[in-house]
Amino acid sequence: MSERISIIVPVYNERATIAQVIDRLLTIALPAPREIIVVNDGSRDGTREALDALAGRSADLAIVHLDVNRGKGYAVRRGFAQAAGTIVAIQDADLELDPAQLAGLVAPILARETDVVYGSRFLGGRPAAPAVTIAANLALTWLTNALYGSALTDMETCYKIMRREVARSLDLSAERFEIEPEITAKLLLAGHRILELPVTFSPRSRAAGKKIGWRDGLLAVRVLIRCRRSTPRSSR
Description:
Blueprint: E1 5-11, H1 18-27, E2 34-41, H2 47-52, E3 61-66, H3 72-82, E4 87-90, H4 102-110, E5 116-120, H5 131-148, E6 160-163, H6 164-168, H7 179-189, E7 194-198, H8 214-230
Parallel strand pairs: 1-2, 1-4, 2-3, 5-7
Antiparallel strand pairs: 4-6, 5-6
């Protein structure tokens, strides 16, 4: 089977950046053919209209509109279910992460070196983010490593890339931002090796549209603990 990369873009109220993200995803160089699946999660700020203006631009672009906001987790799961590619990748719609980095992240999977790659924002040094944001990310990553015996540096990264069959085997149920710890926990419990590669990002503030908050951090802790208690670790 020939390789194809399915890029899932969950989007909620990102009218200012979504067209730029789609343009980048359509034009960047990638080492395999692509499809872009945008899941508009009930946006109410004009994102739907911005996406409709892009409809038909490329056969590689599919746009799914949800009438009700369900959360990033649901949007990601919807994208995974629709993906036709052999590799799935998640791309946020806020331009914190340059889509051009995807080419390097998918390369080890295409080379059959691993089935899962994470883009770590911490491998290249301290990112330009508020101290409280860095502390929260490091704390959640530390808890992940403590519970699952892993050695990750960035559990919460958006850039989670894996074989499609791996993604679909995880039996995901998250609705909101807890999709990040749920994916990680279930990958580790299934015995998958997660290869981390450095990425750069330009963090934005809540005033600029950042949506994740402290309640999501508490939910992430609950998900990590629940998954560890409920599922035996694979000996794979």
